[in-house]
Structures are given as C-alpha cells and as structure tokens.
Amino acid sequence: MNPFRSKAELALYDTDRNGIVSEHEFMLLMMFRLELVSRSEIAQIQSKFREIDKDKDGCICMDDITGALTQSYGDDCDE
Q1: Given 2, 52, 64, 75, which residue has the most CB atoms within 10 angstroms?
Q2: Distance between CA 21 and CA 73 in Å, rounded?
Q3: What is the pTM of this model?
Q4: Contacting residues for 3 by C-beta, under 8 A, at least 6 apart
Q5: Cα separation, 20 vs 69, whole angstroms
Q6: 3-state SS record for the chain
Q7: Cβ contacts of residue 20 below 8 Å, gap of 6+?
Q8: Residue 44 contacts residue 37 (beta carbons within 8 Å)
Q9: Is it the case that residue 1 has pLDDT exceeding 80?
Q10: Does residue 14 contact residue 3 with C-beta atoms inside 8 Å?
C-alpha cells in the first residue's frame, strides 16, 4: 500500500521541507490515516515537548527534564 496519492500529498507530510519524508513524518501520516490520533492531539504533544525542551535544540536532555520537574514540583523532585 502506497500511503501517498500524489507528489503534492507527499509534500504535505514533508513537514521540515527537506525533500524527504522521515520515519517520524511517516508515522504521523499513518496515525492520521488509521485514525489513531487527531491533529489536535499531535499539536498538544508537540507543545508539551517544546515546553520541556528548554534550550530549543529539538531534543530533551536530562537538564531539560530536571528543569521541567523542578518547575512542576520545586526542589522536592528526585534527580
């Protein structure tokens, strides 16, 4: 099964516009197609990721997690 009906549709799922659909982009496409998740739910997840990713490098490291825990629980969080 080819999940793309046209080149234009393929471009819609190339969210970073690098000319290819990554595994991440493909998984999002298939979850939408199979109605396992809504765009709203994905937006909420992405928003939470960006909130935790304090240095905005696209990755969540231990410093980001520690900062998020401290923000949520204060100095009582376990490190």
Answers
A1: 64
A2: 38
A3: 0.64
A4: 26, 29, 30, 33
A5: 36
A6: CCCCCCHHHHHHHCCCCCCCCCHHHHHHHHHHHCCCCCHHHHHHHHHHHHHHCCCCCCCCCHHHHHHHHHHHHHHHCCC
A7: 14
A8: no
A9: no
A10: no
The predicted-structure confidence for 23-46, as pLDDT tens digits, reads as follows 988 898 889 888 999 989 999 999
Residue with tokens 């410093």: 63
Output the pLDDT for position 41.
94
Residue bearing tokens 């999940």: 3
User: Is the sign of the CA dihedral 61, 62, 63, 67 positive or negative?
Assistant: positive
